[in-house]
Structures are given as C-alpha cells and as structure tokens.
Design brief:
homodimer, 274 residues, alpha+beta, seven-stranded antiparallel sheet, 11 strands, globular
Chain lengths: 274, 274
C-alpha cells in the first residue's frame, strides 16, 4: 500500500506537514497513525462515517435536514472506496490514520486499514470539520483559545433537537470558542463563508438558553476559560452525527478515530462561498 | 421648482410611497416637508451634510478614517448641487424635505429650499443611513423592535473615540436593536453585506463595555425594551458625523432635519457587496 520507493518513518511527519501527498503516503503505509490537526494547515480535513447502503440513504436525508452539524463534503458510490471530489488518489480504506469499527452500536475493533472490513455495499460520508473554519479564523487574525493552550475544543450536548428521520435522532452537539464581542462579530462573518463546515454560529451568549448547565464542564473535549468581557460563541459540531449514528445502532458503522481525520487535496478556500 | 404639470397635495404622499420620482416632486415643490422613513421602501436614503470647501477636504479624511459611522455614498463637486451617483435629476438644494442651517455651530434657520443659502464653495456629503440595512433585515424575516412600536431607534454616545483629524473629533454614537442570539447572528450576516451603511455591528451584549451606563436611557431617540433572552446589538450610527461636525463649529454647515432624508434613485440592493 506504500507507493513510495523509500518508505518514510513516522519521525518524518513534521518535515512533511505542508506536503499533502507525502503525508498521505505515510498514513497510507500505516507509518503515521496519530492526530491530523497540526498537519497540512490550509487543507480540508473531514470526519468519516461509513455505513451499509440500507442505512446510508436515510443518513443522507438526516444530513439534508440538519445541514449546520452535518453537511457532507463527499458521498461515495456504494462499494467504491474512492472519493474523487476530495482527491483523485484518495482511497478511504487506507488514507485515514485510524478507524473505529462499530457493530450494532458497539465498538468491536480499532484498525489502521479497512481492507479486511470492506464490503460492496459500504457508502462513505465525509463531513465538514471545524478545522477548516478555524484556519480561516486564524488567517483573519483571531486567536482561538483551545488552540493557544493546546487543548481540544470544548463540546456540549444542547437542548436543540436535530430534525429526526425514522432511525436517526438526537441532540445537536455544539463546540464553543470564547471571543470578545468585536471578535465574535468578525468570527460570524468569517465562518458564514463556510456553510459546508458548520457555517455561522447557532448561538452566542447565555449557555443556559441552549441547555448547557455548566460551561466549565463540557460533555466532550476540554474546558477553556471564558474571560471577563468575552462571550461564548457556539457552532454546530461534527460530533452531532457521530452521536446520532451511535444511538441508531446500525449493523455496521466505521468512523475515523476522533482527531485522526481524512486529509483531502482541497484547500480550505475551496469551501468558501464568497 | 415643481416639474409636475399638476402639483400634488401633501395628502397624496401615501398613494405615492412606492414612486420615487413622484415623491421627489412633492418634496421639491415644498409640498411635503415631513419624515421620509416610511416612503419608498427599498430605496436608498441618505444623511446630508453640506460644508464649505475649506472644511470639506478634512471631513472627507475624517470619513476615510471612520468608515463604520461615516461612509459617504456620494460627494459632490464644490458648488455643484447635483449628485449623479444617486440619481441624474437630484438637486440637493430642493430635494430634501427640510434643512437645518448652522453658523459657527449654532442653528440659525430651518428651511425647505437652499437656493438663498447656496454658494459656489459648498460640497455635499451624502452619508449612508441605517434605513437601508433595516430594510434588508426586514426582508430577511427579522423584526425590528423600534419599528414595531413606531419609535425612533435608540442611540447612545459610547467611550469608543472616533479617529480624529485636526478639527473633527468626538465619540462614536451607536444605534441599538435587540435580538435573540440566533437573530443577532443573522443580523450580523445581513448587515455585513452593506458596508456603506454602517455594515456589521461594532458591539453586542454588555452595554457597559462600550461606556453605556443605562440602556433604558438613550442619548438620542427612544428607549426600547431588551426582553429576557435577547441581547442588545450595536451599530455605528450616522449621528456620529453630525455630532462631530457640530462640535467642530464650521463657519457654515447645512444638514437635513433629522428623519427627513435625501431620497436617491438607487435600490438598497445596489449597496450590497455580495
């Protein structure tokens, strides 16, 4: 699976952060199995959810009804591991650093290659990820607190229900980033340009208005401080579809391991609407 | 000055609200001297400030340094009462319902025609007005509290200084509209499209952060309620340049009477950037 004549070592990854193809080769070879957030800044990364065809059609409907947390940036043909919208050479069976396998909602394996799990009826969804809009915020001159302290963004289950389908339902999960009011306004402008990666925030200010009891105790990720004069700003989060799929307990579901995303060939700017 | 063969009466204004040319004829004839906010919805209206040339150059620099409160949508040639950017037939000496004349900062007259005050060195500035973005907010489905109750938008002096020139300086004045957080986010998106009419808000949330002691006591306009679950959203306001000019006490200054604006030929959409 390694197309490189001289396989690179995992130690090479830091020298290759700007080189999409070289990083993909290391991941494809199983040499790099870690997190991807610091790799290839400016390139679109995506959340991966792979479902059997008899679940995939309904999941696409669920995405259609819930575009803020769940906009697919690519949907494969059944059984086809290629994702040409994201890059000609991408093979979803090898190009994610690590995968989690769920059967009937229960985790059964964590692997770095899907060849032995692949089936002719599997459909791949790649869903937009906030890495893309965070890069745009940074390029706009804003500071992102959890990145500054090397933490994972804090995420919260809310009292905002997703729009359900027959088998998929559950609460909207949000991520939170604190900003001064002026920076919050700028962040709304910047992220509005990226509707396929959650777009504009869905709430700002009072956390209790969306059912968050304690901002210091996120349901996922790490707590970050909201300083005096700042307001918490909440975006719909890609954990929403993950939680919804887990609740639905499909016969088989394969996801990326959290933090270890699929890296595309697209620049983030390809997702900007204007 | 009335180009109509049969002069219309003031009572006709309600029948003509959608007809820019007909409304302008009534104003030009001196038949209509009232407020303009309810007239010709969807058409750009502007604040008017007329200054002698020896003050005008510096005022243009002040506008350049303070684009949020003061973006000119038209600047005339000295002595020329025409404003072709806003409409081929507009004559600023007759086409505003009522004018206020200031000499050395003191009000000396209120008139409905400027012919006897006109001079060869007068430069007209037409500055963007929030009517344009309010129309866009309404078309986006948002409710604007002060309009719903038939009041004037509440306005406040802030502790945000404008960027001064030699003779022009003073605080930024803001207007306030309360929204739910979700509507506030939408309002930021909508008004961001209109940078020449104040654009995005400059603050939201805590009024004291920008020096507003009591939100229930505006410095100009009427108080409006901020209901539980709503946040106040603050835009830079066209009163800022008016106050700055008054403070500078130019030898002569002519403005529109507040609320009685210059009506252009442009649709509001002509000011949208995307």
């Amino acid at each position: 699976m390694n197309d490189m004549s001289t396989p690179a070592s995992a130690g090479d990854i830091n020298a290759l952060v700007g080189d999409v193809i070289a990083v993909r080769q290391l991941i494809r070879a199983g040499t790099y199995t870690g997190e991807t957030s610091a790799l290839v800044p400016g390139i679109v990364q995506g959340n991966v959810a792979i479902l059997p065809e008899d679940w995939a059609d309904e999941f696409l409907l669920f995405c259609h009804r819930n575009p803020k947390p769940c906009t697919p940036i690519a949907v494969s043909e059944p059984g086809n591991p290629k994702l040409p919208e994201l890059g000609d050479d991408i093979d979803v069976r090898t190009d994610v650093p690590a995968y989690r396998i769920f059967q009937n909602g229960e985790p059964v394996a964590e692997v770095t290659d899907l060849h032995e799990w692949w089936r002719d009826d599997l459909v791949t969804f790649v869903l937009g990820c906030s890495f893309s809009f965070e890069q745009a915020l940074i390029e706009a001159g804003l500071r992102i607190r959890h990145r500054d302290i090397g933490a994972t963004v804090p995420m919260y289950r809310t009292n905002i229900s997703t729009s359900a389908t027959h088998r998929f339902s559950g609460p909207t999960v949000v991520s939170m980033r604190p900003f001064t009011p002026a920076d919050a306004i700028r962040a709304i402008q910047v992220t509005s340009r990226f509707p396929s990666v959650h777009g504009a925030p869905i709430h700002l200010g009072d956390p209790t208005a969306i059912g968050i009891v304690d901002i210091a105790r996120p349901d996922y990720g790490d707590a970050v401080e909201v300083r005096p004069g700042e307001i918490p700003v909440f975006w719909a989060c890609g954990v929403t579809p993950q939680a919804v799929i887990e609740n639905a307990r499909p016969s088989l579901c394969i996801t990326h391991r959290p933090g270890s995303m699929l890296i595309s060939n697209l620049p983030n700017s390809a997702l900007a609407t204007f």
